[in-house]
Amino acid sequence: xxxxxxxxxxxxxxxxxxxxxxxxxxxxxxxxxxxxxxxxxxxxxxxxxxxxxxxxxxxxxxxxxxxxxxxxxxxxxxxxxxxxxxxxxxxxxxxxxxxxxxxxxxxxxx
Length: 110
Ligand SMILES: [Zn+2]
Description:
Elements: E1 12-21, E2 24-34, E3 40-41, H1 44-56, E4 69-71, E5 74-76, H2 81-86, E6 95-100, E7 104-109
Antiparallel strand pairs: 1-2, 2-3, 4-5, 6-7
The structure holds zinc ion.
Zinc ion binds at residues 4, 6-7, 10, 34, 36-37, 39.
């Protein structure tokens, strides 16, 4: 039986995992799942299928590094066009901004 490379204690078993990206489900895929830590591993081919599905849904590559800019007395961030399209954002739309801990900033569309 194959040992889990993450925890090095559990055994890998065939199963299916739900893959998601940015909160959007990409479907269930065949994977080897550790019976101890729950980590799952998919093969190259499955990885490509997942990537293709994400591209189809228009969510591939939506994670981006951006920079804070100054705008008067406050700081501003620019929302890249493809993220704005995906979230159907437009000028004047109201959003709710709040920190999640000290390393994450959440913006909820209301
Ligand atoms: Zn494990």
